[in-house]
Design brief:
single chain; alpha/beta; D-Maltodextrin-Binding Protein, domain 2; 2 domains; six-stranded mixed β-sheet; three-stranded antiparallel β-sheet; 15 helices; disordered N terminus
Length: about 350
Amino acid sequence: MMRFFRFCLVALAIGTLGAPLYGQEDLKDKTLTFIVGYSPGGTYDQYTRLLARHIGKHLPGNPARIVENMTGAGGIIAANHLYNRVKPDGLTIAAWASPLILQHIMGNDAIKFDGRKVGWVGIPGPYDTACHFNSQSGIKTMDDWINAKRPMKIASIGPGTSLSDVPKLLRAALNLPLEMVEGYKGGAEARIAVESGEVDGLCASWQATKVSWRSQMEAGKIHVVLQATFKSHPDLKKVPLAINYAKSEEAKTLLRVADNVHVYQFPFSVAPGTPPDRLRVLQQAFMRTFKDRELLAEANKSQLEVAPIDGPTTAKTFASLYELNPGLIAKLKELLIPKR
C-alpha cells in the first residue's frame, strides 16, 4: 500500500510538472499589444518597449509583442480605450499615468474608468519628481524661483499627469510663481519645449531627465532646483526638498499627496474582467521580466532605474486612494480639475 501511495505521488508530481500554465495554448501564436498613452521617446515609452522586448520568454507560448502609442488628453484616451473598448483577454496591456485615478476620484467627467476594477500588472520603477529650468529663465536655485518677478512657464501634458498635477500642488502649497502651459503629448515633447525656450521649466521624473538632459545639465543649460518627493534622491543631495518650504499643515498635506500619488507613476494594466488566472500569469511574468539579467543589463545601459512593484501591491495602493478624506478630495478638485 505504501509503495502504491508513493507511486501515486510521483505520478501526480510528474503530471503537474508537465501541465501547461494557464493560457499557454491561448498565448502561443498570439500577439501581445502594448498601448502607451504618451508620445515616443518619453520614459513611459522607454519602459514599455523594454518590457515588450523581454517579456515574451517569461510568458507561456512566447507570444509576439507590438507597441503602439495612443496619445492625447494626458493619457486619458488610452486609459478610457483600455477600460471600455479592449477585449478582457489579457492580450492588451496599457501604460498610462496613475494620477488619472485621482482625477476619477475627484469627479473629472472625462475619465471613463474605475481604478478599482482595472487589472494591475505592475510598476517597473520609481518616479521622483524634480523641477528643472533652462538657463534662459534665470532660475538656478530655489531662491531664484521664489523671488522671480514673473510666473515661470512650466511645460505640462495635462491634468492627471505628474507634469501637470505636481506643479499645481507646489504652487498651492508654497505660493510659487508659475504658469502652466499644457497640451504637450508626452515628456519628450515637453523637454524639447524647455530646451527651445518656449517655456521656462519642467517638473518631471529625475529618472528620465538625468538621462535625456545629462549633457545639458553638465553644460549649465538646465538647472535642477527642487525635489517634490519627501525623501531625497541619492543623486540630488544638494537639491532642496519642497516639504522644507511648507509653512502650514495644509501645505504639508498637499505635498504629501504629490509624493504618495505620483511616486507610483508607471503602472501597466489590463482591461477589467480579465480572467484572474490570466492576470496572475501576466503579473508573474512582469516581475520575472524586470529581474531578468538581460533586461537589467539593457536598462543599466540606458540608465533606466528598475525597482519593480508587483501587481497585487499596485492594486492595493491605488484602491486606497478611494478612501481619501472628502474634504481633501474637495480641495484637490479645486486645484487639479480643469475649470470650464
